[in-house]
Amino acid sequence: MEMVDAQASGVAFSCDPQSDRRDVLVINANFGLGESVVSGAFEPDTYCLTPNVFKAVPEIKSKQLGAKQGLTRNRAGGEVYLEICGDRSNEQALNDENIKNLGILITVSLRLDGDEGRIYLS
Question: N or C: more exposed end of the chain, with fewer CB within 10 A?
């Protein structure tokens, strides 16, 4: 299977993992592959969104740009290497449109009921 050489990637949460608030969606993102976010190697951007019951698109509540000291990229053979972000560390890893589109995906999530094996769309 071929690995995509992503321009940006990260992790999305359907609630705030630090405060456990369920009325906040959180996206952590960095340039390049998600390895730098998942491993905690570099400080990613953090985008918080508020689901809006009257609109399909969540609203951006806050944006905190991380230091993004580096990023990860593909190398021939599937190896990953680190690269310095340079001047791009002052830019958002995701633009506002991408943040909102990911917010839509987060709000439409599947839940599996362990007791009865039912799948719920929420």
Answer: N
* φ and ψ of 49, to 5 deg: -125, 155
AA identity, residue 25: L
* pTM, entire model: 0.84
Tell me the CB-side half-sphere exposure of residue 96, using CA atoms within 13 A. 5
How far is it, in rounded angstroms, from Cα 55 to Cα 21? 20
Residues contacting 114, CB < 8 A, separation 6+? none
- Residue 73 to residue 81: CA distance in whole angstroms: 6
Looking at residue 42, its amino acid is: F
pLDDT tens track for 44-90: 999 999 987 788 889 999 999 999 998 888 887 777 778 787 788 89
